[in-house]
């Protein structure tokens, strides 16, 4: 395999991301995941990365921990000193976690990604890192504003708040007239006015984070921070420090105090995504913070008061997790002051076309192909498919179609095979049920049969490698395991 071109230019208006890894395959995989959203530079050693950093401004660095000559943490320590504005992310296996924890603060590492990484999670982490860098640059500009006078600062804050409220207004959530989302947004708008904790349920990729942001910017806390954390993305040992902070010397490598997300969100909103993936031990600590309105950073003996609103989300049915003994009942009632459910795309087929048109405009602009449009055959395929990965899968499919299209018209031939085959599922009543599917039964029974077929086909194709199956289908390993257990597919036979 040929090494990727380290200096392949991206669009001038895209943030630049530097990928550092001595394995060419890993560099290529990360580039394929990120190059639609960012300009990409690659380096196969720390020395090559230094040369690139000296020549070009870089927004984010993703560095592998295990490299010959110098570890990722050691290299990122140097980056922090020489290029402090660059956001630093390290990628590593579980066996390196102690080394990462020991150096995470000294190197100023923004995030720690475990292998094998999931493409959607990697992409979202880099997007969030870029936002964090922009936020830091904004804070620097605010310091200049303070020197030039408070009235100007207040005016600019109000302007930015107005822009954020407009960008994340409930009416900006794309949907068709009469959509099931109308009721969800109307209820969320009422809840936003009151300082109640909200729990958002629904499958992965349905837009729970977007709804959480809309709740924040429609609330009295809109001028406060909105911070988020994916609880499934990092282990408990790091999650506690990330949310609650730690004191210098709390553990090996804690060379300075670290302010947690709860403190940074004081006066605003904390969005805890995939809260159902946390361990019982961590749930106890989170419950104590929510009950008492104060936290203790790791290694500290003094409580720190915090005033935050918590919006949590999970693709699991947490009430069922409580009954099964996997989620604490007292924490559930603490975070579920009010509950909302985000329906999947198959539950609101009328929204597929307006969402697809919206995404096509965005993706075509990002890829430099404005003017793209859907053909009738392509639209029929989009509406006929069940979209198990919901909006995230829809966006990926549209990006793929735009990349493959020869002209401005997107036809069915630009779509993946699974999507083209999914078109016949909507006409099963006229031509008979597809082979292997029940011709009768309740809707849930038929959906379960379709889901079982998709899972079985993916398992057999990947030789029962559940990590690869979960990555392909946009599921966590825990979520995949739960589906296999529910559908009776745990045994290879």
Structure description:
Keywords: ATP-binding, DNA-binding, Nucleotide-binding, Phosphoprotein, Transcription, Transcription regulation. Pfam families: AAA_lid_14 (PF25601), HTH_8 (PF02954), Response_reg (PF00072), Sigma54_activat (PF00158). It comes from Ideonella aquatica. The modification 4-aspartylphosphate is found at residue 64. With 493 residues, the protein is an alpha/beta fold. It folds into 4 domains: 16-127, Response regulator (Rossmann fold), CATH 3.40.50.2300; 164-343, 3-Layer(aba) Sandwich (Rossmann fold), CATH 3.40.50.300; 346-431, Helicase, Ruva Protein, domain 3; 441-493, Arc Repressor Mutant, subunit A (Orthogonal Bundle). The protein is 48% helix and 12% strand. It contains 21 helices and 14 strands. It has helices spanning 24-34, 46-55, 72-82, 97-103, 119-148, 150-167, 180-192, 208-217, 236-244, 261-264, 280-292, 318-323, 329-335, 352-366, 376-384, 390-404, 417-422, 428-431, 443-461, 466-473, 477-487; strands at 16-20, 39-43, 60-64, 87-92, 109-114, 198-201, 226-230, 269-273, 294-295, 304-305, 309-314, 338-341, 373-374, 409-410. The strands form 4 sheets. It has a 5-stranded parallel β-sheet, sandwiched between helices. Strand 4 (87-92), helix 4 (97-103) and strand 5 (109-114) form a beta-alpha-beta unit. Helix 7 (180-192) runs parallel beside helix 8 (208-217), helix 14 (352-366) packs across helix 16 (390-404) and helix 20 (466-473) crosses helix 21 (477-487). The longest helix has 30 residues, at 119-148. The chain is globular, with a radius of gyration of 24 Å.
